[in-house]
Structure formats: C-alpha cells, structure tokens
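## Example pair
The file below holds two records. Each record gives the amino-acid sequence first, followed by its structure token line.
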Amino acid sequence: MITARAAASFDPVGRSVATARAFVRDTLQGWGYADIVDDAVVLTSELVTNAVIHAGTRAEVLCLRTDDGVKVEVADRYPEREIPLQGAGPAFHSPDGENGRGLLLCAALASAWGVEYTPTDKRVWFRLDLPERPVGTRSAGPVLPTELLPVAEPRVRVAVVQIDRVGTISSWNDDAEAVFGYPAEQVTGKPLTDLAAWPHTPGIGTGIAEALQLSRWEGSYGIRGADGRVISVYASHLRVRDAEGEPSTVCLLVRDDERAVLQTPVRAASPDGNGPFADSRTTDPFEVFIGSPAPDDLDGLLQRTVERARDMLDGDSAFLLLATDDETELEVRATTGLPSARQRFARVPVEAGTGRYGSARMPAVHEDLAAVPGAVPLLDGTGMRSVVTVPLKVEGRLTGSLGVAAESPSRYSNEEALRLQFAADRIALAVESARLGELERLRRGSLSFLVEASDLLAGTLDRDQTLALMAQMTVPTLATWCAVYTIADQVSEPYLSYVLHEDEERIDDLKALLSKIDPPEPVPTPGARIWNAPSEAAHHAALRTSMHELGLGAVPTLGTGLDGTFATAAAVGGETVVLPLVARNRVIGMLTLGKPSDDHFRQENLELAEDLSRRAALALDNARLYSERMAISRSLQRSLLPPGLPPIPGVEVEVIYRAAGEGNEVGGDFYDLFPIRDGAYGFAIGDVCGTGPEAAAVTGLARHALRLLAREGYGGPAVLERLNAAILDEGARSRFLTLLYGELWPQADGGAILKVVCAGHPLPLRLRQDGTVAPAAEPQPLLGVMDDLELYEQTVTLGPGDVLLCVTDGVTERREGTRMLGDDGLTEVLKSCTGLTAGAVAARVLRAVERFAAEPASDDMAILAMRVPEPRKG
C-alpha cells in the first residue's frame, strides 16, 4: 500500500541530474529509508541522465513510499525513443557501453523494474525493498574500522535534569553531577537560569525560560560548571505531566561534541493511525522533525520542513512561505509536490480576504478548494482540493506560513491543524534565526555588489560602456535578461538602447521581440513595477507559431524560426519588472529585468536592483553630460583651426596637430595658413596660455584678427601690435599668447621669401640643403603682457631643398623625468631630415617627440613644415 508520495520536475539541462539525486536522497532520508538511499540515488541518476541528456526532454521523478520499500518512476516526453532491451545488442551487455547502462543497473540493484509507454511519455520505474532487520533494529550503518569511529569519553554521560512548573531544578542525576561538578543537593531548588549560559539570537528575545515552557525543544547552549567554566551541551527538552496533572520539563543533556555519537533517529508516522501520532496528549507529535542535524542554509531547512510536514499529515504536497519585512505579503520559499520552479519567490498577500480563512495570521482548514476558488492562490491549478495552513510566529510577530495539501477533499480537520501548528511553533524560531542569518549574508553581499558596481560605473564616462555595464551587472546576478531604455529629452519616446540575455544566442530574438512592443511608461515613481507586455507578446508569438505549425494560416511574428519563437517565449515568460532611471529629478530611461518561464524575483533582489538603478542612472547621466561637453569641445576646437590648407605654388606645406588629453578640453595651440593677396600668403602658429573656454576665446580672437588685419594690408609688426591691443582689451579674460607670424612670397626662380615676427614663440628653424640647421628669426616679446610693443620683422630666404620648421612648445618641452627634448634635441632631429619632403619632415619630428618619453603627451603639439622642392632634373 502506498503511504506517501513526492514528485518533482527537472529541466533538460545537465545540472538537473544532480538536483534529481538530491531530491531523491532528501525524500528517502525524510521517510527513514536510509538503508536504500544510495541504490536509489544511483538508479535515479542514470535514468534522469537518459531523460534530460539523451532524450532531451523534461524529466518527471515520482517517489512512492510503501510499507516495505520505495518505488521510483522517471518519465520523459519522448516515447518514440525506444530503450535498449536485453539481448538487443552488445551495447546492452557491455559495461563500457553508454546505451542501456541504467537498465543494467536496474536489473542488478532493483528488486523489480519495468518500462511503461503512453502516447505522450515513457516511464521507467524501479522498486527497492527494505532489507530485513532484526527485531528492535531501526537502522544500521556499515561496519567501520576502529580508527574511523567517533571519539567519545570512556563513558558517554547523559545528564537528566527535571524542572518544575516555576523553572527550578527538582531532579539532578549522577551523570549531571559528573559532567557539571555540582552535587544534587547543591542545585536542587535553584532556577536552571542560574546555571545556563543562553546564547541569545540577535533580534529574538526567546530565552531558556521560554524554551522550558515549549512542549519540546532541541538545541545547544552552555551550563556553567562548578569550576566556573561554561560547558557546551546539546539539550532536548520535553514537557510532561504527572498523574496529578502537575507539569514539569525533563531535560536530557550531553556534551556538545558527543552530539555526533548520539543522534535521535527518525520515527515515521504509522499509516494506520495507531502510531506515535495517534494521541498527541501522550506521545510526542513532533518526532517527524527530529533526525539528522538541520541543514545550515535556510533553503535546506525550509525544504526539509515542508517534506517532513507533508509526511506528518500524509499529504500530497506542502509549502512554506516567509513574510516580507512589512508583513503585508508572503513569499514562496519552499514547496514539495508542487511545481516549485513556477511558484518560487511568488508573493501572495497576508490578508487575502475577510474572516479567519482569509488571513495567514490564523490557522485555517479548507475542506474543498473547489468550493472556494482562489482561497489559497498558491494552489490554483495544481489539483489540490483540501489544505490546512498555520502561521509561523516569533514573539507574536508573523514570520511565515506552513501548509499541507491533499488531492482529495475533506482530508483535514482541526486536529491536523493543531498538530501542524505545534510543529510550526517548534520550527518557527529556527526558521527565523536562519532567515536573519541569510538576510545578513545577503546584505553583506549586496554592499559588496554595490561597492563594486559603483567603482565600475565611476570608472567610465562613455555612454555605450555605461549601458553595457548596467546590463552585465544585473545578468545573471539579479535577472535572466535585461533591457535598458533611454530617453533623450522630455518630449522623446523611450528608445531601446541595450539588450542582454544570459544565453547569448537569445539576445537577437529578445531584441526583436522588445522592438515590436511599446516601451514601458517612464513613470518617475521609485521602486520596481510589474510589466506584463513582454511575456504576453512572447506567449502570443508562440501561439501564432503553433497555429502555423498546425497549418491554420498564422505566421510567426518574430524574425526567427519556430524553435527561436518558442525559445523566446520561454526566455521572457516569467516576471518582468521596470525600474526608472532618475537623475537630477528627470527620468532618463528605464531598467527592465526579466525572469524565464513563470519565475519570480526575490524582494531582496528587487531592493538591490533599485539601489543599483539609482547609481546607474547618475552614471548614465554623467556619461551623457560628458559626451555633450566633449562634442562641444571638439566642435569648438575644429572651429579654431582652419578647415583646410590652400595650395602654394612652388612650396610644400605640411601641418600636424595633436591635442593632449581625452578631448574634453579645448587646447590653446593653433595654426593657420591663408592667402593674403595674389602671390602672398600668411602663416601663423601660436600657443595661448592655459586651456578651456578662456583660452579658446583668445585663440579665436587671434586667428580671425590675423586674417582680417593681414588682408587689410598691414605688415607683420602692425598686425601683431593691433592683436596685442585687442587681447589686452579682454581684461581679466585675456591670456598670454606666443605667436610666430609670417608672410610668404613664392619666387619664380624656385625659391621663396619670408618675412617673420617671432613674439615669444619657439624660434623657427631653417634646414639648408647642406644639412646645417639654424634659427631663422630672433626672439621678441610675447603678446598680452605690455601695452607698447615695438616689433620688427625679419626676412628669410629659402632656396631649393631648404626647410622651415615651426613648432609649439609642446614639442620642445617634451619631458622624460628630468630630461627635456629642447631646442638642441629638435635641431638634431631636423638635421637628419635632409632631402625629405615637408610631410616626411613633419612625420619624423612627431615620431621623435613621441618616442622621447613613454608617457602620453601632456601638452598640445602643432608642427608646421614648409619646404621649397628641388627642381626636377631632365
């Protein structure tokens, strides 16, 4: 006869095999069938591997408990794929062959096994019988070598202490005296609280006095011995009453390190109702929760709890929900016998309606859910008919809800509700303690995550890189997929700027889907809000694709094949939330996070995503402002330089300009070359002190004033004197300016005559055809300092093959530590340029400057080279 069942479904991915093994192991251990756990796990592993890896479908695992053993069924959705039968070929008989190895193991290990086919699935099952054990043997372990046995004192002592109604010690046995050093007469009549060192859990006020009032309690604490030292003990408290009805508490205490030597075995419920749960007044109704030590992690503890609760009431499913911090909602954290992947982290309201049946704060029994649809939202569509739910409370505060459900109606009564409530009261403190521990770990992890995210976001001012970082930090840490919408201004529509999925092959399909639906509304309200449009669009697309497959005329709406459409529907079929990106009181975009296949977000993850969205919004807005500033700077820099160089007959001209920094500041270096009148050309190269808007203003003034004054017929000295006066008129906005200005007249005989004025600028160098280099002008005062300047021009004649090199101080002041290129270094570079064209001369000078130091240049550089070419021979 089947006395209990447990079922789970596993996706067709490799990690499902390990998950299935853990499911079967925990289920059988919970039923007390430790003797056959190993064989069941091995067989399940092989059969699930065959389903999810070889058949490529979901695997349904069903465990059925009987009086004398267990039956495990593994079903897949590929009935057409036949399994190898005995005698079908050498692969089946060979231990090294892959095909049929699971069935070989079934034949070798199982008491019985078989295969069942239906039109929709294939089911492989095996049965393992419990081994016969001597009378009085509940379970047995293997024979171990002596050196592997746990270490204990020569005698394991169990201290038995009895506590009366008011908490004073009324009985103290010899083992208690041996362990703690107090004789019975010394401690009898004293409160146990005088001896106990109770480890309070932060946030929970329960003490040992409260624990002694519980019907049963287990845990660790300390007892102060006669020598003053605290001795750690593992204690079991049991509340009893004597024949006259006087209550007292019996405490069994062993040394904490002997807990590994003595463990209370699991006692399963008797299926005929005559077992240890038949009468809660005379037996302990909570033995189902005693067994191997509780898991250290919260999820393991919750899963163990729902499995034991289901077994205790012989239900078909069980679930446990934890309350949010404000106690307005409950979050699904563990289920058994239900589609847990679909329900995990789903949220339901604490107050679902009026009356005791509508509130999770009170125990409730629903005899038939068909009569009250929606009474337990978690069970909608699961086939469960009757359910009993009880609250988990700590110090009167709701911390969760525990429920057990059955497929048949009228299964539970108030008696089962009372038993489940006792169990919930016993486990509530442990659950809350584990929840607080998990919450603390999550908060620490969240702080580390936000610190790292802030560092990454602060490390870039590039808009596209910021968008990529936002998505990469959320996927897969917080969500399965992410989409970032940006808004250019208040009147613009949200634009889909970036899409990322943890499966790179689905990014294009996801982007195609999102581009076909309206973007979410840019609501500035903080916090995450549900957005159903993506999942609805994906499901509609999958439905149309199914109709197309059936020949009903519909066609897919996505730009993918049929498989891609279904994959996209699964990828975005879960919960989707939108978080606004608000910076400087303006919505600049939306961060959209999604889960696959009906999955839900944890509340803690949503809060973390909200914190991240605030940082990401500011980083994105900073990147936008920086990009705008850089674009303005580049546009202004281009306006300060000539759009092009005019061709000069008989003279080669080459200009190289390099701005230092990242391009977000307008440099002070400039150059110009322009026609003055027929046969005459003006040229200039200068450097304004400083950078930024003030330097740009002087640069623009100088370049345009030079052209205007030169074309009005003024000579070089007059042009610079008037420019000096204009700079001084700027007042506080004026800047010093070094300037080399000259006029050029190409000659018919192949040479060129130049008249130059060097106002505080690095001197121009002339390279003669014979390789000698010398300054081509004398230094004169710079501009923007004195009112009265007396400048003069000097004449320079360039013959065929001669070069005139003009540079800004970014070239001559190039540094490497204490070394500087200087005028002498530039002269040596120029000497090596004999016979080169103007372009080659400028390129060689630039290469020499760049190679002089390993660090990037810290100052702008401008290089102007003019050369009179040699006449062609022949």
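Second record, same layout:
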Amino acid sequence: MRTPGPAVRVRVLPLADRGDAVPDDTVVRDCLRQSPPRLPPWLGYDAVGSALFERITELPTYYLTRVERDLLERHSAEIAELLACGRIAELGSGSAKKTRLLLESCLRLRGTAYLPIDVDRGMLESSGAALCAELDRLEVTGLWGRYEAGLDWLRTHPGEPLAIAFLGSSFGNATRGERDALLGEIARTLRPGEAFLVSADLDKGREALETCYNDPAGYSAFADFRLNYLTRLNDLYGAGFVLDDFVPEACYDADTTTVEGRLRARADQAVPVPGLGLTVRVPRGRFLNVGYSVKFDGQGLADEVGAHGFSLGARWLDPGAQYGLFLFRRDGG
C-alpha cells in the first residue's frame, strides 16, 4: 500500500483559543515583578526568536548542539530499542533536526507517531513537513502551545506507549521550582514503564560556559536573540523598551552552576508596560534576566528527576563527559 504524502501526515493542533502562543499575562507580570525582573523562556520563541536560536546553534563556540547530535548519531539505535514505544512527544521541539536521528531509528523498529510541542506554529508546520518528506511512515501531530498545555493534551488523548523527549539541554532553562512543577506534569502524563529522555549540559566552569553563551567576535546571534525579548514585550503589551538602552550578555554563577542571559541597563530605566499595568525599573548596571541555563552533575540530575517517581535506566555521555543523554523510566511498571 502506498504511503500517504508528507502533507497528509502532518497536522498542527492549537491547544487553546489563542493557540496558547500568546503568553499568559499573569505569568509574564509576575516574572517582571521579581528581583531582578525576569522574562519566561518561552516568550522569546516567536518566529523571529526561533530563527535567531537556529543561528545560535551554528555559532563556532556553541558546542551543545554539535555534541548532542554526535551522541544521537552514535546511540539513537540503542535509545530507540530502549524506548520501545509507538509515540514520541517532544517538549520545545524547534526545528527537530537532531530528533530526526532518533525518529529514523524508531521507524526501523516500528510505526512511530511524533508529537512535537512548541509555541511557534510556523516551526511546527515546517519541521513536520520536512520530517515527513524525509521519513516514510512517520506521522506528525504538532501541538501548538506551551509544555503544560501539550502534556494535558497527551493525558486526555491516550494511545500507543509514549515516550517524552526533552532535548537541547532545555531542562536547565528554568528555576528548580519550575523544573519540579514540570516534572510533576510529566510524571502525571507517563504511564508506569514509559520513558522520559532528557539531555543535560554538565558543569564545566566559568571560562568554558561564558565563552559558549556569549557571541564570538563578528557574530550577534545571542545578542539579537536576547534583545528580541524586549521586542516581544513592546509588540504584545505596548511596552516602551528601547533596545539600544540595554547590553546583552551572559554571566556564570558558580554558586548555582547557572549561566544567566541578561540585558544590562546602560542607564537607569523606568519602562512602562501598559498591557500589564506596571512599570519595569532597572537601575544602571543592573539587568533583566532573559534566560537561565543550569548546569548539572549526573547524580544531581538523577536525584532531581527521581524524586518524581522515575528511575534512571541508561545514560550516554560525550567523550569529555561534558554533556549527556539520560533515559528515565516511570516507576510502577
């Protein structure tokens, strides 16, 4: 029987009336009231932000994408065997270029449905079409919304055994409280014995990490990506941010093993945000936080995920033990 064409095998489902892509006003307001003011990571991933992040992954100093791709090239067949599932959902799927390696290995073993979750509808459509054009028999159902909405959809649409993937070291882009809340949602979504595959960047100190998370000479991908958060606030909420009033940078905090993406104020700032009913104040030299990237050690990650009812089943590290893929199994199976 002939396999349906790529367009027939791709659909994108909005998960709320506004597609859940317009940020929750309460969440953004609460983040901006923190000290220092903070913007949630998903705010930066409109079509422009997604394209800018793809530029980041191509920077010569940004090792994460290359190391993770190499791990998947070497181990995707083994991972596919261990997942033993007919459905793979991915949180923050983006372009899914690396995920293609895993999906290809899964398809060699069984029919596979891919359920990417992302706030950028255009990216879901284009990545789904590209995957289906390259991989016969793959079916893609894009879930347009934030992680929580996608996981809720999965809970209300049971089916073949499910694995949830969280690649790109994105698990570290949140506070401990936010990670715990998300792990609770993932635990509620997976049935006993089902798998959670997560990648994590491992701590390697200030010099290596600040080199990785700042633009090398002649590039501006990180700077443009961080400043796009202010453009989003201006567009969505009528804010009055002037991009030239802020210096994009990344700094490593050894106490928390975290790289912080920052927008440092060149002068005292008092910026009205009418759509949220507040004014954001940033003194000269202080900053807005536009991203965390927590760096783990293997045991700490295992303990953090394990506290939510998971057991570590397997892990794969790069030769320098700088980065890893970790496969957890939901307890009770």
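Notes on the second record: The two ends are 36 Å apart (CA to CA). The chain is about 35% helix and 25% strand.
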